[in-house]
Amino acid sequence: MSTEPAIEERIDAAADAVGSVWPLHSFVTANPLAGFEDQPFHEAVADAEQTLGGTGYPSADVFRAAWERGDIDPDVLRSELAAHGYDDDPAASLDRLAAAGSVGTPGSDVETATDRVDAVLTKWLAAFLDQGRAKWRMPNRERGFYAAVRRLAPHDDDIPGGEAFADQPDEPVDAVREVLTDYPVGEWRDVLEFQLTALPGWTGFLKQRADAGDDWQTEYPITLAGYLAVRLTLADLFDAPVGPDETPDGPDGGTETPGADVPLPEVWLRAWEASYRGELVDAVADASGAAAERDDAGRPDAQLVFCIDTRSEVLRRHVEAAGDYETHGYAGFFGVPMRYAGYDADATVDACPPILDAQHRIAAHPTGGGDGEQAAHDRWHAAVTAGRRAVERMRSNAATAFSFVESAGAGYGAALAARTLLPGRVHDLLDAVDRRVPDEHEFCEPSVDYNPDSVNPLREGLTHAEKVEYAATAFELLGWERFARLVVFTGHASETANNPFDSSLDCGACAGNAGGPNARVLAAICNDEDVRADLRERGIEVPADTVFVAGEHTTTTDEVELYDGHVPESHAADLEQLRADLGTARADAAAERAEDMGVAGESGVRETQRRAADWAETRPEWGLAGNAGFVVGPRELTDDLDLDGRSFLHSYDWSTDPDGDALAAIVAGPLVVTQWINTQYYFSTVDNAAYGSGSKVTQNPVGNVGVYQGNGGDLMAGLPLQSLYAADDEPYHQPLRLSTVVHAPVERVTDVLADNPTVAGLLDNGWLSLTVVDPTQEHRAFEYDGELEWTPMSEPAAAARTPTPEPQAADD
């Protein structure tokens, strides 16, 4: 009987040890230890250290800095130390941590057989997986990775006896089986995991590519079995180890104490998190009580719906201060899981969270009413494309390369000097060109109507029923019962130059793409009179004078562009006032952010523009660095708070969600995505070499799929140092696990978790925390304590800062 299914199942199981890695052009922040989430956090990081070689906790220096800043409450820390079996006082325990961190494992400069396997393998992986960057493309890629390497390996002088590839089985699974037959079946997974974790960056990318099944994978297929077949063949030829060495675990370095249930760094981390969480819960609980006594302020001038992204929190405060505006938080793909084809775009992008599959193909089509704008756009882009192609031909043609350098060198030098010395002026020039050249939204509309004759793999557009459902879902999750004259769905994107990780600054809810197209789709849906009629039948009354507008927030500069071509004259004054107030909010937000950039507040706008255009800027913006909290509830809970751009904010009104369906959707979707983001920032900060991508200064992009450090090796899987550190030894991002606060009856949250064992498991295993502020129980807070149990808090902040290992009732 064939063992192929058993082998493939074991390959998939072994690959769980490696987190998925997305390509650079759609970089997604995800937990690099996703395969370990079924374990308690402290056990998971210990296993990952053995498997992947990465450290799972902040260093003693990071904890010491937090302690000295006052970020860790002394009483909380002492309580945590005692609760987990440590008798040390804080100073002594810090010394223990520091001593443990000074004990390192000596490295070796001796090249091993496995190093030689890795060097050859990564060379072929880079060539095979290239996405349009290579001038000379690897032949036979359409046959698949294993077949292509088999054909070329005999001609690779770096492989000893490369002709042996020709003697291997035709099918990769058969080649893997031949190796595994030398080992007991019980050791197969260990062997496969050993091989797959040798290059976790490449393995993670292969996992994601196979799961996505995109055009590149369809055209040039590669599987984990094919990868392993090549790797195991190379291991045999280089006489490299096939299975893991059986070496005993190293000492704990003094971070554990007999009788302690968790390692010492875990205790410090919990104390730091509880200190942060206590202040957040206190503020939300106090605001909950005050909000219950508020009078309805009436109809606002406009409502703006932003992504839940932490960067939106800063701008939202300043928008609200600029006028009579409400702001709300909603996942930045605006609930429409779509694949977007921009006007005249070479490729489509999946503009939805990676935990969802795109359901609709939405294309931008000219409306016919903006022929002049379309013609101007086409002329400009045709000229730019022709110029680039001409330059590329002259640069790559042996007959013209030298003369091209002679004639164009001065111009290139001047351009580089301008971008280096005068980036602000460059931004002004590009901005002037952008104003003169129409963007696609000025003459295109998204094709939201269903097209039954489309031949695309995804159905094109949306049916009427789907439109109604997406609109209703949005308003139900937001908990809306009133509408302003203007409602703006505001997606977001970033602006940056010469940045391999530019997509990491775009919308994570849109899989590292801009959110403006999604905002336009939802606005178009909500402006549909037939949709509004059906919404009324569902109890959602949208006033006749409400107009929905799309916009896009550029997070680098805090500028908001409104896509307002269809706004009627009756709303022109409202729109102009909003546009002016958005300009004020932008200046104020940029001034606030300027402090983190080390410049004066009055220079905020200019500094953000400079960073957006500076090709040498390694930190165009901080992105989501600093994220630590997630508040699910009405805006009234946080509108008087300065959350310092550290909290995700999702609007939710428990009183409009009697069945808990909206809350269940938030927990299953946005909460999971924010946990991915949080853990990526956490692990990239605590061990950037293992889980991040090192300094941008020494990175080399490869094939538009990832970056190397140096000229080869494993793909770096996470965020660069400059996105996380203010200086080489000074992390800007505080590595804390996500603290979630939900405003809802605790029984409702319990029911939601009972129906979502994945999220309940994350909570039980300590990958994030959850506190509920219950408006039906005098706005008291309840902390999740595992196994669907809660610890009530008579004084929210104090109780939150003193977690207990077992549930217990608090005094009333």
What are the main properties of this structure?
single chain; 812 residues; alpha/beta; 6-stranded mixed β-sheet; 5-stranded mixed β-sheet; 28 helices; 19 strands; 44% helix; globular; disordered C terminus
Give a quick rundown of the structure:
The protein is of the alpha/beta class.
Break the fold down into its secondary structure elements and pairings.
Blueprint: H1 4-15, H2 41-52, H3 60-69, H4 74-83, H5 90-101, H6 113-129, H7 145-152, H8 172-180, H9 188-196, H10 200-212, H11 215-219, H12 224-238, H13 264-291, E1 302-307, H14 310-322, E2 325-330, E3 338-341, E4 349-351, E5 360-366, H15 371-396, H16 401-421, H17 423-436, E6 444-446, H18 464-478, E7 486-493, H19 516-526, H20 529-537, E8 547-554, E9 559-563, H21 572-597, H22 604-613, E10 629-632, E11 647-650, H23 661-668, H24 670-686, H25 688-691, E12 699-702, E13 706-709, E14 725-727, E15 730-731, E16 738-743, H26 746-754, H27 757-764, E17 768-774, E18 780-786, E19 789-793, H28 796-800
Parallel strand pairs: 1-2, 1-7, 3-5, 7-8, 10-11, 10-16, 16-17
Antiparallel strand pairs: 3-4, 5-6, 8-9, 12-13, 14-15, 17-18, 18-19
Describe this structure in words.
The chain has 812 residues and is of the alpha/beta class. Among the domains are: 4-18 and 109-238, no CATH class; 296-367 and 443-625, no CATH class; 372-436, no CATH class. Helix content is 44%, strand content 12%. It contains 28 helices and 19 strands. The strands form five sheets. Strands 11-10-16-17-18-19 form a six-stranded mixed β-sheet, sandwiched between helices. Strands 2-1-7-8-9 form a five-stranded mixed β-sheet, sandwiched between helices. Helix 6 packs antiparallel against helix 12 (224-238), helix 8 crosses helix 12 and helix 18 crosses helix 20.
